Recover the amino acids of this structure.
């Protein structure tokens, strides 16, 4: 059922995820969906928890046994850059749908705490890492929640810059000489 629910969210957005649409897609009685989840919000929360758990596994794998704040930020930037368009849209749609409901507040806080800690920054390195993290999240939401036009090439260029900034405190220059016109 959760596989079918994710497919619905990817194809139609979170608004398209109803007991009826899921029953049809999963080829089970609507009463079974209602019995399993109780409410539409609980269904969306289950799909979001699954998405967050999958992302946490990716994060933990990327991080391996490294524990520094820099390693956490670099891992977050790398795996965010590598998300498929479908994974990104699904996650953003679910987060947006649940953000106002308060149902996923604990899930969001735990997930973000694992990625970014408290966002407190007492050193210049911590400030650079905080900026890189917030910029990565901003790019993610611009592209996937607000449908800001961003090609895959531009997406990866932005995340290359963020990775370089988090690692060295500076961004890269992508084929543009000094004084070159910005890309349109």
């Amino acid at each position: 059922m959760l596989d079918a629910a994710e497919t619905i969210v990817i194809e139609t957005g979170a608004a398209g995820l109803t007991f009826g649409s899921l029953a049809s897609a999963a080829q089970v009685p609507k009463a079974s969906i209602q019995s399993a989840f109780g409410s539409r919000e609980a269904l969306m929360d289950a799909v979001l928890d699954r998405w967050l758990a999958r992302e946490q596994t990716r994060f933990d794998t990327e991080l391996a046994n490294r524990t520094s704040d820099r390693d956490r930020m670099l891992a977050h930037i790398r795996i965010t850059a590598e998300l498929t368009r479908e994974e990104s849209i699904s996650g953003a749609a679910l987060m947006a749908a649940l953000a106002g409901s308060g149902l996923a507040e604990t899930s969001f806080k735990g997930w973000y705490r694992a990625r970014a800690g408290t966002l407190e920054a007492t050193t210049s390195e911590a400030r650079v890492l905080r900026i890189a993290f917030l910029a990565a999240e901003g790019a993610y939401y611009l592209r996937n929640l607000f449908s800001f036009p961003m090609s895959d090439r531009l997406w990866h260029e932005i995340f290359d810059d963020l990775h370089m900034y988090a690692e060295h405190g500076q961004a890269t220059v992508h084929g543009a000489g000094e004084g070159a016109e910005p890309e349109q």
Summary: Residues 161 and 171 are 5 Å apart (CA to CA).
